[in-house]
Known about the structure:
By secondary structure, the protein is of the alpha+beta class. The chain is built from four helices and six strands; from the N terminus they run ααβββαβββα. The model has no long low-confidence stretch (mean pLDDT 95).
Amino acid sequence: MSAATSTDKFREVRQDVDRLNAESPTAAQFMDRLTRLLQEKMLKYNWVGFYMLEPGAQPPMLALGHFQGAMTPHTRIQLNQGICGAAASSGKTIVVEDVRNDARYLACSIETRSEIVVPVFVHGQVAGELDIDSHFLSAFTAGDRELVEYCARLVGQRLEQEVSS
Ligand code: SME
């Protein structure tokens, strides 16, 4: 795939994401449809899902939400566990080029080689995250990061609207 084609692909998927956002009546529907869209359109996104902080849980706990792909053994993750816990506790995007070299990694599938986790913010606080696994090494380029961060931002905005209404 040429660089130009890959830019076109990101632009096309972003437009699909915008359309989905406009057409989804609730944040939950948007999140569900978004996981499907990303897994269908982005060929290296083999597992796409949300983990959301459980309200009031002590210690804080991430719980598996809408997802596409094989069922994972990790349905609840503490903030001191996994790439997911690290992204939620730091509030920063984490891209792992090769999960075999990251001691934090919690295995979801033996086929996974790379992963990106992007926090979702609601009113400035981490409310959850968008987690994507790939069977390919270093699957997540700067363009992918931009796309996934864009999706996470839109989800945060939709959740904010529901919190304030
Ligand atoms: N790999 C994640 C766990 C979630 S599964 O990938 C779906 C982690 O290390 O936190």
